[in-house]
Amino acid sequence: MLNHQISRKDLASRIEHTLLGADATEKDIERLCREARREMFHAVCVNGSRVQSAHHFLEGSSVKVVAVAGFPLGASDPDVKRFETETAVDNGASEIDVVISIGKLKDGDAAGVLRELRDVVEAADERPVKVIVETSLLTREEKLLACAIILDSGAHFVKTSTGFGSGGADLEDVKLLRAAVGPRFGIKASGGIRTCETAVAMIEAGADRIGTSRGVDIMREYSREAPAE
Predict the structure, then answer these.
(1) Of residues 97, 130, 143, 173, which has the active-site annotation?
(2) Which of 39, 65, 71 is nearest to 50 (CA)?
(3) For a designed S-S bond to 46, which of 50, 62, 65, 175 qualifies (C-beta 3.0 to 4.6 A apart)?
């Protein structure tokens, strides 16, 4: 039995219902948006080529469209990430999830990473930007460096993972990120979150948002196991 310290409404409002597979069809995006509307999730998270469709399917609802940039490797040219961001905004994206330049971070090129992130933040035009750091590929020191850069960049969230790397969200990483960025900065836990128990644990560890392709299953599990509100 799950020990719920969060209401169903609050849990749903933290979920970003995600579909980033290369084989996602228009019908899949329509279904994703229909589920997000029904469950009252915070957002859907899609690839740039699907932003316009998602924006259309969510018209009239409060569900936001999150677009990824530099996804999933973070290795594209900074100008490409900026252009992806500008295009996503033009097509209706409300938030941007950009992958940090992992290789440059490991080089210790803090100034280069900072410039790139500031460009994306500027291109997002005051929309929330979440920076994906792919925690499974970083040392503790690199995670802390990434957080310091992100705080300085004007971005709004640090995000654990793409879900396409060697590992996903980890409770200890979420706790480390929270300690690094402080109590008011955003944290999105993403990657391998498949159960309600895991989602709630991530929130309790400090995550503000949950990125998952299993949002509907998580809410069904909550409804089965939570006491009546």
Answers:
(1) 97
(2) 65
(3) 50
* Cβ pair 173, 143 in contact under 8 A: yes
Report yes or no on whether pTM surpasses 0.85. yes
Identify how many contiguous H helices and E strands the chain contains and give both numbers: 10, 8
Q: Report DSSP letters for 16-35, one per residue.
A: EEEE--TT--HHHHHHHHHH
Mark whether 90 is an active-site residue: no
Q: Is 106 a catalytic residue?
A: no
The domain defined by 8-225 carries CATH number 3.20.20.70: yes
Active site annotation includes 143: no
The per-residue pLDDT string of the chain (229 residues; one tens digit each, 9 = 90 and over) reads 455 689 999 999 999 999 999 999 999 999 999 999 999 999 999 999 999 999 999 999 999 999 999 999 999 999 999 999 999 999 999 999 999 999 999 999 999 999 999 999 999 999 999 999 999 999 999 999 999 999 999 999 999 999 999 999 999 999 999 999 999 999 999 999 999 999 999 999 999 999 999 999 999 999 987 655 4
Identify the active-site residue in 64, 159, 170, 173: 159
What residue segments make up the domains of the chain, in order of their start?
A: 8-225
